[in-house]
Amino acid sequence: MSDKPNYGFTTTILHNDRRKAIEQGSLHKPVHTSVAFGYGDARQLASVFQGKEPGFRYGRQGNPTVGALEDKITRMEDGVGTICFATGMGAIGALFQALLRAGDHIVSSSFLFGNTNSLWQTVAGQGVAVDFVDATDVANVEAAIKPETRMVFVETIANPRTQVADLARIGELCRARGILYVVDNTMTTPWLFRPKAVGAGLVVNSLTKSIGGHGNALGGALTDTGLFDWSAYPNIAQNFRKQPSANQGLAQLRAKALRDFGAALGPEAAHHIAVGAETLALRMERTSANALALARMLESDERVAAVYYPGLASHPQHGITQELFRAGGSLLSFELKESIDPFDYLNRLQLGIPASNLGDTRTLVIPVAHTIFFEMGADRRASMGIAEGLIRVSVGIEDTDDLLADFRQALDI
């Protein structure tokens, strides 16, 4: 297929594998399970190892099936290159492993996925200082920046309280200060939002969630948008300075995080994710519509104390959501009136499944404070606005009427 036609998002992703030759005319990139790749010419093998020509060296550093997925994610995010990892946390961990040194400083949103929060706490104990701020206001980010700040890290829509970072203005700040801006796009996905539009240099996606979309494979990705000037980044090793500046960040990440740390994505998981990604736009349209309908229903019920969903006009960052995102996404959370036990409520649901994943085709529910955020303690939860009775909902693709009826009947006690 030619690259010349300006195809839409889904058409591009659906036919992306066929833009390059595929064995036997397969419509999907086959699953390559080999961990070693032989060459008929030893000089060519050396050339591949030295980065002088494309090719595969060893399964931990790349694989044809994983490479096809990386190309797909790059096109989704309108980037210049992508590295896939075994999990989303592997991708975030790569930032520390490859790009940060003792004495560096990170400014991070305080509204974070629980495991990301835990990772930054670990990082803080290993010589990299981390300041957590309310990133819904750029002024808080600016006030925390120091001369040694190397990175600003935010999520688009925070899990689980759905706070939306001041994305565009933080991007302007980072560009003016020459700071690497990293945006975790997991809860919006490249279909609802591209962080490149607000100046992000690196984009994180947990492929386990909506991009894979079916809860059957773990994976993560870092995409370089091409906007950050790596030649000015102080932590690039000299051997990577030999490459063009645009390639230096990904080259160091692939070597220092993927090769050295070993969080490689397997080809079988890459295949599952690549196939799931083909329907990303269709699923996000459906789950976002379902989430908005459910949020409106819950907000109108007097037995519900609070609903958090950026698609609601009552949400503090609804304006940013309307300006930047196609829709409000599939994540919402809510609190019940004190007279209703949240565990009993969850047990009355017939369609909402108590489970900890996000972005599945099925609707998943979880009592946040008692499970995924239990480890961080009551004080930290309170600082993040997480009430003890908060229920998180990852809304699926069920028929809307069925979903609303289920959440409504669970309130009838």
Can you put this structure into words, describing what you see?
Strand 2, helix 5 and strand 3 form a beta-alpha-beta unit. The strands form 2 sheets. The protein has a 7-stranded mixed β-sheet, with helices on both faces. The chain starts with 8 loop residues before the first helix and ends with a helix. It has helices at 9-14, 42-49, 64-77, 88-99, 114-124, 138-144, 167-177, 189-192, 238-241, 245-261, 267-277, 280-299, 318-324, 342-348, 378-383, 400-409, and strands at 81-85, 105-109, 129-133, 149-155, 180-184, 202-206, 220-224, 304-308, 331-336, 353-354, 364-367, 391-394. With 413 residues, the protein is of the alpha/beta class. 38% of the residues lie in helices and 14% in strands. The model has no long low-confidence stretch (mean pLDDT 94). The chain contains 16 helices and 12 strands. The longest helix is centred in the C-terminal third of the chain and has 20 residues, at 280-299. Pfam families: Cys_Met_Meta_PP. This is Cystathionine gamma-synthase family protein. Keywords: Pyridoxal phosphate. It comes from Massilia phyllostachyos. Belongs to the trans-sulfuration enzymes family.
Spatial arrangement of strands, main beta sheet:
1-7-6-5-4-2-3
Q: Which percent bin holds the helix content?
A: 25-40%
For the record, give the distance between the C-alpha atoms at the N and C termini, rounded to a whole number: 58 Å
**H and E string:** HHHEHEHEHEHEHEEHHHHEHEHEEHEH
